[in-house]
Amino acid sequence: EDQVTQSPEALRLQEGESSSLNCSYTVSGLRGLFWYRQDPGKGPEFLFTLYSAGEEKEKERLKATLTKKESFLHITAPKPEDSATYLCAVQGGYGGATNKLIFGTGTLLAVQP
Amino acid sequence: ETGVTQTPRHLVMGMTNKKSLKCEQHLGHNAMYWYKQSAKKPLELMFVYNFKEQTENNSVPSRFSPECPNSSHLFLHLHTLQPEDSALYLCASSQGSGTENIQYFGAGTRLSVL
Prior knowledge:
heterodimer; A: 113 residues; six-stranded mixed beta sheet; globular; B: 114 residues
C-alpha cells in the first residue's frame, strides 16, 4: 500500500536557523513527489515536483531533494513568512492513467523573529 | 489566486439540511478532485473526475454526492451529514493523468455540522 510519512510533526526555528523536513514514502512505481505549502485557512499551494532519485529543485530559501526512499525540504536562513504547514505527496502507479496523490500529515513550521 | 475558486468559504448546517459546495477552475484543466482535510489527518481523496467522468470514488458515504457538469465546474451535494463530517473540503484541478499531475487547490470550504 502506498504510504507517506512526514517528520517532524512540528518544528520551531529561530529566524536564520536552517533545517530540513523529511518525507519518507513507499509507493508502487513513483511517478512524482510533490511538495506543497499550506497557510492557515487556505488551500495547499504547489511548491515543487520531483520525478527521479537525485533530482533537486530550488525556490528562494527552499530546496527539495529526492532519493529512492525519501525527500527532504531544506530551508536555508528561514524568515517568519516561511511559517506554514508543509505537505508532501506522491503519485504512483506503473503505466496506466492514475492521477491519485497520497499525502502525508504535514510538518507545521514556525519561524520566530 | 490559484485559478480554483470555491464557494462558500464557510458553511454551518444541521444534520437534516441539504447544501451544496461549488468549485470552479479557470485553468483549462481536465481533471477535478474533492478532498477532505481533518485535523491531524492526511488529505483524504474523495472523488476524481477526468473529462467530466468520475474515475475515483474513495469509498465515500452516499450522503456526499458529487456532480461534474463540465470540466470547469464541480459540485459536492451534501445531505443528512453527521458531526464527524465537519472538516475543510478542498477542491483541486490538474491537467489530467499522465507524467505531470500538478494539482492546484482552492481555498476550501470550512464545513461545520451541528
